[in-house]
Amino acid sequence: KEEKVRRTVKRVLKCDVTQPNPLAPLSLPPADCLLSALCLEGACKDLPAYRAALKNISSLVKPGGRLVLLAILEETFYMVGQRQFSCLYLDRESVEESVKEAGFDIEWLEMSQLCFPGTLYDAKEACVLVARKH
């Protein structure tokens, strides 16, 4: 599997979701599918910034393409080693509304309760969704 991934992945790119062209200074053709997992909650300080970030990354997806999003809900912090990081508090409704405002139709969504020790983070649920761009 490792060898297959090495053959398939062509390069790793810096992505700043706070910018209108998240891959600047590069400009690439829109992708068939974009995966965002556990990123936007840490990069965005408030809900308007989260909505803007989703709109920014939507520019990376071609019409008819898919967004696969993993978001952590009702979380205010998480730990990496001994260091605590803040996290944007999101609920299911705000994620759904933000994805729709960014130009996507949600095709599938699943919620999952989180059952890890409360000292590592204070999240309640994870939300995984697949959405199609208009």
From TrEMBL:
InterPro entries: NNMT_TEMT_trans, SAM-dependent_MTases_sf
Transmembrane segments: none
Record carries keyword Methyltransferase: yes
Keywords associated with the record: Methyltransferase, S-adenosyl-L-methionine, Transferase
Family matches, as Gene3D superfamilies: Vaccinia Virus protein VP39 (3.40.50.150)
Homology family: Belongs to the class I-like SAM-binding methyltransferase superfamily. NNMT/PNMT/TEMT family.
Protein name as catalogued: Nicotinamide N-methyltransferase-like
Organism: Gekko japonicus (Schlegel's Japanese gecko)
